[in-house]
Amino acid sequence: MFVANALLYPCALAALCLGAGLLVERACWRLPAPLLVSIGAAALIALSQLTTYVAFLAPATPYAMAGVAVLGFVLARDRVRGLGAAVRAHPAVPFLPVLAYAIALAPVLLSGRATFSSFMALSDSAVHLIGADFLIRHGQSYGGLDLRNSYGQFINDYYNTSYPSGADTMFGGSARLLGLPLIWAFQPFTAFMLASASGPAWLLARRIGLTGAWAFLAALTAVVPALVYGYELIGSIKEITCLSMLLSSGCLVVLYPRWMRAGPTGAIPLALVLAAGISALGVAFGVWAAASVAVLAVALAVEMRARRVSLAQSLALVGAGALTGLIAALPTWSNLSGSIRVAGNIASTENPGNLHSALRAIQVFGVWLGGSYKLQPTGSGLTATHLLVAAAFVSCALGVLQLLRVRAFSLLAWLALLLLAWLVVSESVTTWASAKTLMLTSPAVVLLAWGGVAAMRALLPRTLGTTMAALLALALTAGVLLSDALQYHSSDLAPTGRYRELASIDSRFAGRGPTLFTDFDEYSMYVLRDLDVGGPDFVYPPAGAATAAGGYGNPVDINRISPAVMAEYPLIVDRRDPAAVRPPAAYELAWQGAYYQVWARRPGAVQPALHRALSGGTALQCVSLGQTASIAAARFGPRPRLLAAEAPELVTVSLAGASHPAGWGHERRGLVMSRPGRLDATFQLPAGGVWEVWVQGELMPAIRLRVDGRALASIAGQLSGNSLVPDTIPPIPVSLSAGTHTVSVQRGGFTLAPGDGGSAVLDSIFLTPAAEPPAGTLRVLAASHWRELCGRRYEWVEVEPG
Fold it and tell me: Which of 76, 421, 632, 686 has the fewest Cβ atoms surrounding its Cβ within 10 A?
């Protein structure tokens, strides 16, 4: 699965985009080879938007994409053979997107497993997963959605309101063509789209006046500056896709003499990339599209004045471009008011998403020597960042002189309008939208900074110019790549094993929903897409079950859900966690894996007349049981029954009194293992035998677990997706005698492994007897015999009418 997603899928994407690009070229003018893939991607976005717009055509989207690519290769056989000459002329250029892809996907590639990065940073990619899957299966047809549960609400409130879906439909169609699970293909797709921007970036670097290795490094750093890399790591599929379209439009601005004189079809590539940007990002992309159109309007006027293009030719050119753009982004234009409303909501939202504070303007220069673009670097990292930003700023000023020197007026005007758009938009939108604008502007600024390198080589004496240019190039390259390396090292990767288990649950119980999902993990909506999932702690919880969590991302307590609401769910999927509450008596354990349990409602199960949570010690619970029995006798028939769920036997390891490095701080109730070191804690077992050790926390880097000096396990890559709900690691059995024991948790030293600087929070350790029944003990007796329940602890008691 790892090879198919990380290695074969990008090759298939490259073939699809190249074939589509060749077909576009066949219809207009001879495109520069480095533009074929990005323009092909734009064409595939347009195609997938149109096929999913017509619901019954949606399932054919993968085959339509493949057909277009094949047709392109067939009709452009001679051109394909001619591409070899382009490669021989610039042999390093084909390696540019490969290297950009490797950098973008580095955390996944070096983990050696199917996963995706920055797992705990943002769950918006969960929406894109379910959207891509739904649109390819059902198209834009939303009548069959169950709006009572989270899955239906997410699809309806996003995609049925003109939320931009261009990147999603291309992603869903291409991944389904190979039969890949979208959850594992997601990060390779965003990495590929980032890499597809390297061809346009190289062409722009060449126009600036760079050649050879200079142009190679300029293009590479322009597509992976710190802020862009950070957005790629969190799966910002819309923005990364738009970046490729944005740089492609810049190339077409620079190349305007070629296509303005090529006839009406000359405008097709530009119309496609602008339409693709609008389809992927929404009408908000119009800000960047306007920059290109404004420069081209002036250029067309110049061409007409010089009589290189007639008025009739201009009108035909504009008309063909407008018609292509209208058709290519038809779903957006068909509900333009909805698209504008979505863009307005994003621009005005006060919700900063995963940002702790507004991003700094200096991040536009591509350097940020901290572990996250969201946090300011500290100490020497902050000093180095400021020095590198100062060098980039000076280099940008020299870059302006270089563009004037080489008479790249259209490129200079385009860059100036991009910067103006950034400044104006940033002043008129809130934190979240401003950050997106800053990210999309960063590659243009980095390219402009490389113009300073070209200026030094051209304006200074040869030896001095080469030396100074090399030092500046080294600073620009090292600043970007070091920034990326720090983010790579602190990335959090999704837990592969847990999602594979959820996928097996989806296959086993498909169609038996709706399903109540008690874990906080919005990616479950994709993995359990055949179970109509409702998550009480999701952004869109089921209405009747929302109080079970008390807010987004909070732990779920199903004791808070009324019996009438519970009766609507044939299935419950929850984490294996002895400390969690057992589902109501109407449910029996239907399946258990390493991470999850599936509870199925028993056929003919009687809805309890009363469900009451119990807490406190045995004496207090005995009083509550007596009160419940009295209520039952008075209200619920002549012979009501009590059903009580026994609380499991837990031996908790106290972390409060444990010895650990002084530098380990606290996050809520968890202990942050921020540096190498070891924790030692003692615990007391009441009896000997086989016990199961449970560890809860967010553990991305590897930690070693020992009991009495015996190695039990190495734990790594175990994350829940939310620090409010600690991840529960599958139990580890160990044979122990009664008495006192010592448990040790050790975090090792620095490594280059992806995520070694990621989350390392230990929340709790406890033990349970291995002989404990997986479904817990449920005691059933007549309400009149309630005293027999006293002396033990229970999670809840229910009353079943007589």
Answer: 686
